[in-house]
Amino acid sequence: MLQVILMIAAALVVGLGAGYLIRKMIAEAKISSAESAAKKIIDEANQEANSLKRESQLEAKEEAHRMRSELDKEIKERRSELQRLERRLDQKEESLDRKLNNVEKKEEELRLKEEESNKFREELERLEQKQLTELERISGMTSDEAKDVLLQRVRNEIEHDMIAMVKDMESQAKAEGEKKAREIVTLAIQRYAADHVSESTVSVVNLPNDEMKGRIIGREGRNIRALETLTGIDLIIDDTPEAVIISGFDPIRREVARLALEKLVSDGRIHPARIEEIVEKTRKEVDGQIKEEGERATFESRVHGLHPDIVVLLGKLKFRTSYGQNVLQHSIEVAHLAGMMAAELGLDVNFAKRAGLLHDIGKAIDHETEGSHVHIGAEVAKRYKESGNIVNAIEAHHGDVDFQTLEAVLIQSADAISAVRPGARRETLEAYIKRLENLENIADSFEGVEKSYAIHAGREIRIMVKPDRIDDYTSIQVARDIVKKIEGELEYPGQIKVTVIRETRAVDYAK
Hints:
Helix content: over 70%
Distance between the termini: 208 Å
Low-confidence stretches: 184-200
Order of helices and strands: HHHEHHEEHHHEEHHHHHHEEHE
């Protein structure tokens, strides 16, 4: 048994040794083969590297040769350009030399001419002084005195010619532009007269105390901004005790703001949410009031069948004034007057009343639409299918177009009667008399005025001038100067006509 084990152990030792020798021989063979392959790869790489090096050297030489050729070419071109520039500079230097020589010659010629001119000027001055001395001796006046006389004569002639030219231009302008000027002046008076603006763009809200002003303004002005934004008007809070001024051109918005502010002051709760609620509620109330006022006007004037939108426009006239006269009440009055005159003349009473009630309908929206209230009113009547005669009566009540019916003439007359009757428009007697006195005092302040008279309720002033001191042309200048002074110093509604009268009377007696 021991022998078997020893034999097995010996066999294992022999096998391990043989396996080791075999693996060593295989490994050496592989190492030898790998070394041969690596040597071969290195040789091939060296050959390829040498080949690439030779190609790179050739390419570098070719690129260097090409760049040298281009550089040589560029140098030649630059050298050629420099030579060309040098030739041009040489030519310009020669040209400048020639011109310099010419300038020097001309300077010498000018110097000689200047010397001759100075000599000639000195001779002229000597002769002029000699002539002036002789003229002073003959005339008995010095040169300054003669100059003053001549300037005064020239000034008088120029003023005379200017006045004559102005007169001709005024005559031509009147002939060509009288109609256009009437339209422009009428529109300006109707829409921008000072009294109208002061009466119809401002409302006052009384406050219980001055502390309320701070509540109306609110923290950082949020309340007053909310009210102004919602109503579209301006609130003026100044030092006026216990009062707030509401300013705005739209009478409806101004009325909404006034009523809303009065309600807020009465309620005491003033904040943006409450302001929005009160303004919306007030706007609905005002809309209802407008409709009621329009219906009342149609009922009082007995005019029926009007379009609902026209009735609303009539209601808006309740909040419009002209020189203190309520436009809606004025329209009702014109309707009654026109109807009574139509009845007396046997004309169409209903037509006269309808045209009289609608004649100023354009004033309800003339702050919103461009144009005169006459044009706007006619467009409104056309839009709501009023008859052509009604449209003509509206257009013609200020003389803008010709009358097509007798009733249209009555509308113009009734409009004038309602406007000029005593008490119709606001102007105190004291202010009226003061305005007339100021008008006459302005005219009397001019030199050569003998007497002045304010007539036609201050709409015209007639001025008598002294004929021996003011001629026909100077009277035109006097009228213009008086007009400028009136415009600069007085405030008045409409326009004032200035008439300068110059007359010469020859009186003798038969005995």
